Structure formats: structure tokens, C-alpha cells
Amino acid sequence: MSERVLKRGLVMEGGAMRGMFTAGVIDVFMENGVSFDGAIGVSAGASFGCNFKSGQIGRVIRYNKRFCHDWRYCSVRSLLLTGDLYGADFCYNQIPNTLDVYDVETYRSNPLEFYCVASDCVTGKPVYKKLETCDAHDFVWMRASASMPLASRVVEVDGYQLLDGGITDSIPLSYFESIGYNRNVVVLTQPRGFKKQASGLMPLMKLALHKYPALVQAMADRPVSYNRQTEEVFSKADRGEILVICPEAPLGISRTEHNPAKLQRVYDEGRRITISRLEEIRAFLR
To answer: How far apart are CA 219 and CA 216, in angstroms?
Structure first.
């Protein structure tokens, strides 16, 4: 009988600035040589998590603290002037190409496979994209994955009309398992026991996205689907099939946090929890 091939995956939930927790997790991984064969991120899990493949320890917390008060990064002014709360050109062009340069060469030379998830506005289904070069085109896919409804324009790329991947697949563990990843670490940005509630913005969502009824339905169904996903994730963790890293309590940070001290606190919490479980993580991945 042939030996089962171990394929190690890293699955990263989104959550906007709760992603500072994930940034702390991946920095500890990089500092301690914890490696994977592939990674998949949703929303902030993609736009922050890609720094794991480029090997840039500290980059996420650094540029978020540096630009958190810059209106071009995240502001109502940016929303009014550009149509995006998080400025598309500033976040996905100026920062990675000029202001805090992204290491594209290391990204491309790293054999780790990196995927992101976006939501198809027309079908209301998730779309999974392997990002191989991290060029301008791949950054458009990352932007799509992190484009929150009402706070972003619909992103058009490769014939798709896309928004935030968290709408349709917040925790893409099942997808990663379906493509062969059989030893997975899942990073969540909500504590165990968290239950997503229906959004009070649904009437406004229906009005703003009336051209996309399938997406609106996916948004309405999201609390049920998300809560079902987290139940499945923790059930697998309890059976030892996967390993979950998550906060011990709600992180207490807004989705558009502008306070650098709060960003640092959440980042530090991700580091603390990961360091405390480092030997457990290494043993699991072996």
C-alpha cells in the first residue's frame, strides 16, 4: 500500500482589521520556520496573508500602523472620491510598489501555492483563484476578495464581477481539502462560540445590489452558512483532523480601525497565542 502524501495547508479567514490577529500568527510562523505546501486567504486573509509567501515578517503591522490615519488608505473621503472605502490605487498599487514594497521575487520563487476567494456577484457562488505571480492582475483579485459590499465598487476581472469572498465562503477549508490538502491549520479571527447574526444593513444591501439577486441571497444566508462552517471546523479540530488558531475572546477592534495601539494589541494577541502553541503546531504538521 502506498504511503499517504502529506499536504499541509494554511486557511485564513478574513475580518478586515481583525486580520491583524492573522498577521501576528503568520509572523510567528515565519520567525520559527513553520512551513506549508499551500495557503488560502479570504478578504484580509488574502491581502495580509500573501506576505507569508513573500516572507516579509512585520510588513502587515508596519504599513497598517503607518497609514491608518491616511485618508487614501481607509476613509469616508476615499469612499466618496473613489468609490472604495479602502482606496484601490493606494492600497494595491502605491503601497506595494512604492511606499512599502512587496517582495514579488521571493513570492514567485517560494513553492507554496497561494489562493484567494472572491464572491461572484452574478451567481452568488465563491470563486477560487490561484495567485502565481503577484503582479498587478493578481492584486486585482486580492482587492476583489477584500471588497466589502457598500464600502467598495464591484471589481471586474477575467470576466467576473466580484466582491468580498467572505460572503460566500468565509472559511474555505472544504475547498482546500477538495484539492488535496489533508493536514490543515485554520486561522480564525473570531473566538470559539461566536455566532454571526443577521446584518441590520440587509435592506440597504438589497437596494444597492439589486442587480445581483443571487449575491443578495447569499448575504442573507450568510449567518446560517457561517455558523455551520464554524461548527464543522471546530468539530474537526476536536477530532484532531485539523488545528485551529483563534482568539480566546472577541478582539474588540473595528473593521476600519484607525488606532495604531489597537492594531498593535490585536497583532500581539495573534503572536502570543501562536507562540504558546508552537510545539503543538509543529507536532501536528509533522
So the answer is: 5
268 vs 76: CA distance, rounded Å: 28
Quick one: residue 31, left, alpha or beta (phi over 0 = left, psi -120 to 50 = alpha)? alpha
Q: Sorting pLDDT into bands at 50, 70 and 90, what band is 3?
A: low
DSSP conformation class of 95: I
Contact 45, 22 (CB under 8 A): yes
Q: Which residues pair with 163 in a beta bridge?
A: 119
CA 57 – CA 191 distance, rounded (Å): 25
Evaluate if residue 1 carries a pLDDT over 50: no
Residue 87 has pLDDT above 90, yes or no: yes
The answer for residues whose C-beta is within 8 angstroms of residue 13's C-beta and 6 or more apart is 22, 42, 45, 166, 170, 171, 186, 187, 188, 189, 190
User: What is the residue-wise DSSP string for 72-92?
Assistant: TTB-HHHHHHHS-SB-HHIII
Phi, psi angles (nearest 5°) of residue 180: 105, 0
C-alpha span between 282 and 80 (Å, rounded)? 47
Taking residues 42-57, report their average pLDDT: 98
Residue labelled with grid coordinates 514594497:
101
Dig out the grid coordinates for 182 from the structure: 489533508
Contacts of 132 (CB under 8 A, 6+ apart): 108, 138
CA-based R_g, the chain, Å = 18
Residue 110 DSSP one-character state? -
